[in-house]
Design brief:
Blueprint lengths: L2 E4 L4 E4 L13 H10 L3 E7 L10 E8 L4 E11 L2 E8 L7 E6 L14 E10 L13 H9 L3 E7 L7 E4 L1 E2 L3
Antiparallel strand pairs: 1-2, 3-4, 3-10, 3-11, 4-5, 5-8, 6-7, 6-9, 9-10
């Protein structure tokens, strides 16, 4: 199976995705399971102190570089209500953070009305074509990975109650 090393990232990425499926028909569930079982990056989602210090919401997110153009993700959140947006952001300590790529969580958007607490998951892919043109990351996976390794890339989830962000977590490389 051909593999390549992402320059500067120390990650080996298969050029042909491997799935843990036993049949020849790969399903979305199998693909998302691979993202969870073999993530390149993980984010622990916790309350953002300056915006939502009293939240009980939390979650985990897993990311896997799929090829030169795409990254797969799987997000699992709990104790949250009124999800309105999710985005991969660049934050270097200055305000405001800058969006790299907005994520569309059809399964999470609008989860429970504000005040009603719920849990949910979302999965999908994003690619360099989805990167914000005004964002800090060049339109390449290797530049995205560089910023992750520098510690400046976060997943942020906003809610109706906390439009500046309820929970967030830094993408951290996972040892394979």
């Amino acid at each position: 199976m051909p593999c390549r090393l992402l320059i500067g990232a120390g990650l080996i990425v298969s050029s042909t995705p491997t799935l843990s499926a036993t049949s020849t028909n790969a399903t979305s569930t199998n693909a998302s399971q691979q993202v969870v079982d073999q993530p390149h990056f993980k984010a622990e989602l916790l309350g953002i102190q300056q915006f939502s210090p009293q939240t009980n919401a939390s979650g985990e997110a897993y990311f896997r570089v799929l090829d030169d153009e795409n990254i797969g993700y799987f997000v699992d959140v709990s104790n949250i209500s009124g999800v309105s947006d999710a985005s991969i952001t660049y934050w270097d300590g200055s305000f405001p953070d800058r969006t790299i790529v907005p994520l569309r969580f059809t399964s999470l958007e609008g989860i429970a009305a504000p005040g009603e607490v719920a849990s949910g998951t979302a999965e999908g892919t994003f690619g360099v074509a989805d990167f914000s043109e005004r964002g800090p990351v060049e339109r390449s996976i290797s530049d995205f990975v560089k910023h992750v390794l520098d510690g400046n890339v976060y997943l942020k989830i906003t809610t109706v109650q906390t439009p500046l962000g309820e929970i967030a977590g830094k993408l951290v490389p996972q040892v394979q």
